[in-house]
Write a structure and sequence with these properties.
heterodimer, A: Fumarate Reductase Cytochrome B subunit, 0% strand, globular, B: mainly alpha, two-stranded antiparallel sheet, two-stranded antiparallel ribbon, 4 strands, 40% helix
Chain lengths: 205, 324
């Protein structure tokens, strides 16, 4: 079944590369330590790479939101109130013990229902709450000398810096869980193959 | 929820102390400047009447002629800066000959020996905290001392007519940085003045610091001496200016949780309001340094959370293998 159109796959690929660069360079800056030079070598390079990747990610994020609106892709992220708690609960139970009892997926992937409720909730959280805040706090730190920003004083930078670290950490946690969940397909590599070809293997196999 | 609605705004406000600090500081500074009236104001005015102007005019009593001339740029002073400076309580003739009170000034006064800092402050109990003798020893090791034959002395950086202590008295770090860096830029960004002491060609500072990310933010937030001097823990401000190639280029000297490796910015004592469990106290003084303003609790929470996630995934993988 053809689930992922080309633009989604391209955006997803670019986004994945950028997020990984941002996590690595961000951690290299935040945990810089002169006593452990191997862990944090190239601080200046990390700072530059982080800036460049962040700017491209912001553009990519805008393209994603615009693409969702234009193509109607946003419908896959909508979740009913009914499914918000019960659906996510069901899916969580499946991941925690249902799948070990060979139970069937509570929300099998169809052309109209690409994501299960847990995915919908986490994707909405990441893309529509965490990412905008992460980009905004990043913009404040990137353009510290802008008059509209400087008027708030150093406190704003300390606050946004800590917020940026927390949000960045949440994105890195999401990335780990997201990648791991992608191994829970018909075969461990089948969902990754789908991200390249656009086709997803049937889970009934 | 009631606790959260009460404590959350307090927590957020906790991050914004600098605005009130800056206000208090500026208020104190303005009050100090406005209220100070020199006991030698009238005497000093006899000098400022000409030396605070680009052009001067006086009656030469010997020739009976009115003299009009342009003041040498190096001899132009600012009243405002003088009365805001450390030496604001002095009379001009405390340091300069009283013969300057006659016009035109006697020619031999041009050769009047100038005091240097140690002449007054050396062995002075009131200035003991600054350790001028140690500063002098450090200066003699610095690249600036090589220029002594060309006439370089303390005054090139610390003009006795305008210099004021800003670092220890200020809670607004950015203002301090601006003031202190303007001393360096007085020569290093003014080639006409620079070439009085050096044969080197013009140096474009932005090009020389091209390697430095976020250059403008660094220039506004960090004093030149933080990277260009060797720290001496015995004195408040390092004066051993190192050769260009020895300047700090390792970002981790400052962008680190280890306060010991940071340069002299950290010699500032934290204020009472500063204890927020951050590794480095420098942020309390008005700077935010990525990598340096770590919060131990946040670091630990991140580490524990991360370990927890990896453990859950590990256990999940184990069950998947077992139940395959």
């Amino acid at each position: 079944m053809y689930l992922y159109p080309l633009w989604i796959r391209l955006w997803h690929f670019v986004n994945a590369i950028l997020i990984m660069i941002l996590i690595i360079t961000g951690a290299a800056m935040q945990f810089a330590d002169a006593d452990h030079p191997l862990l944090t070598a190239g601080f200046a390079g990390s700072a530059r790479l982080h800036d460049v990747a962040a700017i491209i990610l912001t553009i990519s994020y805008i393209a994603f939101v615009a693409g969702n609106i234009v193509t109607g892709n946003s419908k896959y992220y909508r979740i009913s109130k009914k499914n918000l708690f019960s659906g996510t609960g069901k899916q969580l139970k499946y991941f925690l013990y249902g799948m070990f009892r060979k139970e069937k997926q509570p929300f099998p992937v169809t052309m109209d229902n690409k994501f299960n409720p847990l995915e919908k909730v986490s994707y909405n959280l990441i893309m529509y709450i965490i990412m905008p805040l992460l980009i905004l706090s990043g913009i404040i730190m990137l353009f510290q000398d802008l008059k509209v920003i400087i008027v708030f004083g150093t406190g704003l930078f300390i606050f946004t810096d800590i917020l940026h670290i927390i949000l960045g950490f949440l994105v890195s946690v999401f990335l780990i869980i997201h990648v791991y969940c992608c191994t829970i397909g018909p075969k461990p590599g089948s969902l990754f193959r789908g991200l390249i070809s656009g086709y997803q293997e049937s889970e009934e196999q | 929820m009631r606790y959260l609605s009460f404590s959350l705004p307090l927590l957020i406000l906790n991050f914004f102390p600098s605005a009130s600090y800056a206000f208090e500081k500026n208020e104190a500074f303005l009050q100090d400047t406005i209220l100070f009236v020199s006991p030698y104001k009238e005497d000093n005015e006899l000098c400022f009447k000409c030396h605070a102007e680009k052009k001067y005019e006086y009656m030469n009593e010997t020739s009976g002629k009115q003299v009009k001339a342009a003041m040498h740029p190096g001899d132009i002073l600012s009243r405002d800066k003088f009365y805001a400076s450390n030496h604001k309580g002095f009379s001009c003739t405390d340091c300069h000959s009283s013969q300057f009170q006659s016009f035109p000034h006697p020619e031999e006064l041009k050769k009047e020996p100038h005091f240097n800092c140690l002449d007054c402050h050396g062995g002075d109990a009131a200035s003991a905290v600054f350790k001028f003798e140690e500063i002098d020893r450090e200066f003699r090791k610095s690249v600036h001392f090589r220029l002594e034959e060309q006439g370089f002395n303390c005054w090139e950086c610390h003009d006795p007519h305008s210099y004021r202590l800003s670092f220890r008295n200020s809670k607004d770090m950015k203002e301090t940085v601006l003031y202190d860096n303007s001393i360096c830029l007085g020569c290093h960004a003014d080639y006409d003045r620079f070439k009085q002491f050096s044969d080197r060609g013009k140096i474009k500072l932005s090009k020389a610091h091209k390697w430095l990310p976020h250059q403008s933010i660094h220039f506004e937030s960090v004093r030149c001496i933080e990277c260009h001097t060797k720290v001496n823990e015995n004195i408040l401000v390092p004066h051993y200016v190192m050769p260009e190639e020895a300047a700090v280029r390792d970002c981790r000297k400052c962008h680190t949780g280890n306060a010991d490796t940071m340069t002299s910015l950290l010699t500032i004592k934290p204020t009472d309001k500063g204890n927020r469990k951050f590794d480095n106290t420098v942020i309390i003084n008005g700077l935010n340094i990525i990598g340096a303003n770590r919060n131990k609790y946040l670091d630990n929470i991140i580490l524990i959370f991360f370990a927890g996630i990896m453990t859950i995934i590990g256990v999940h993988i184990l069950f998947r293998v077992i139940r395959k």
